[in-house]
């Protein structure tokens, strides 16, 4: 099911573009703003809440707090707006509990990976800046949100004049970040969070996220495979990496394809049926479309729309 681009533009009419933010997203936005304000009032607090590899032991809590601390006003504005706008698309589909769980898990795993990487770089280069540079920011989770959009509406065109589909947004974000890192060294501290945020969120959605309808975990459909983050000519090279992930998380020593479904020991793996994968995406697209329709009604209908909008969003969540 494709979402009509007219609904996207109509949803922003009459100021509704800046309305309809979920309560959880607004609460997390307050946390980001408060964290930035604390650093402006008491700068030494950065040593206790940011990820500084040399101080992570014994300050292990910075593996959790670093993702919610913004060091620049530009990062604060970009990540806060991203949280609010993408949150009002994903949270009604996933549910508030799953949305918060996704943020907590991806944030923690991203920080752990960044910590391990910086320690490895220190031993390779012996440069102490890798140990003492404060790393923080919500951009790792924000990169994960784009992976969620890729999963739900992969073929939806986010930017029509260049035919940019949602499924390419995570890859484009990483590629752009790598290019910017070569142009300005200040952006290098963002790169680990963006890369690990993207792939930790993919691992979570691919293997760990629980489907409330079927009680199955993950999304093993071919349309969400590791290869889909890369262009066609690179996929033969990347395929071994995806195979390692499959064996590591699923224990698939022998995986074959039959009718485009994964087979293990003669039985289809749960959720690998392409029909089920198509239904999952259709439900996500329908829920998103109903959300946008609710905003369109709110923009044109006035007072009564305020009452009808929550019911539409509730129906969207129930459909998923």
UniProtKB/TrEMBL annotation:
It is a multi-pass membrane protein. Keywords: Membrane, Transmembrane, Transmembrane helix. The keyword Transmembrane helix applies. It is found in: Membrane. The keyword Transport does not apply. Residues 261-320 are annotated as: Disordered. This is Peptidase S54 rhomboid domain-containing protein.
């Amino acid at each position: 099911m494709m979402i009509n681009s007219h609904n996207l533009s109509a949803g922003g009419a009459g100021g509704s573009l800046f309305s309809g933010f979920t309560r959880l997203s607004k609460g997390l936005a307050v946390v980001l703003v408060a964290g930035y304000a604390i650093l402006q009032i008491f700068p030494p607090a950065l040593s206790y809440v940011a990820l500084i590899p040399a101080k992570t032991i014994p300050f292990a809590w910075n593996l959790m707090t670093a993702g919610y601390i913004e060091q620049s006003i530009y990062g604060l504005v970009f990540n806060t707006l991203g949280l609010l706008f993408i949150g009002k698309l994903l949270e009604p589909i996933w549910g508030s509990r799953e949305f918060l769980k996704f943020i907590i898990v991806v944030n923690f795993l991203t920080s752990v990976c960044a910590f391990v990487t910086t320690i490895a770089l220190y031993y390779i280069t012996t440069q102490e800046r890798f140990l003492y540079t404060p790393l923080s920011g919500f951009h790792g989770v924000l990169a994960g949100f784009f992976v969620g959009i890729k999963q739900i509406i992969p073929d939806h065109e986010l930017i029509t004049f260049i035919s940019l589909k949602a499924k390419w947004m995570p890859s484009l974000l990483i590629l752009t970040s790598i290019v910017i890192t070569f142009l300005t060294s200040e952006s290098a501290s963002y790169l680990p969070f963006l890369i690990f945020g993207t792939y930790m969120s993919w691992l979570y959605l691919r293997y760990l996220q629980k489907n409330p309808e079927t009680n199955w975990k993950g999304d093993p459909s071919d349309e969400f495979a590791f290869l889909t983050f890369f262009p066609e000519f690179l996929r033969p090279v990347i395929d071994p990496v995806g195979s390692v992930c499959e064996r590591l998380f699923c224990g698939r020593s022998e995986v074959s394809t039959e009718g485009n479904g994964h087979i293990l020991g003669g039985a289809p793996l749960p959720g690998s049926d392409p029909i089920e994968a198509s239904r999952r995406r259709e439900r996500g697209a329908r829920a998103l479309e109903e959300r946008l329709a609710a905003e369109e009604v709110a923009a044109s209908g006035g007072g009564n729309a305020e009452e009808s909008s929550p019911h539409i969003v509730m129906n969207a969540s129930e459909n998923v």
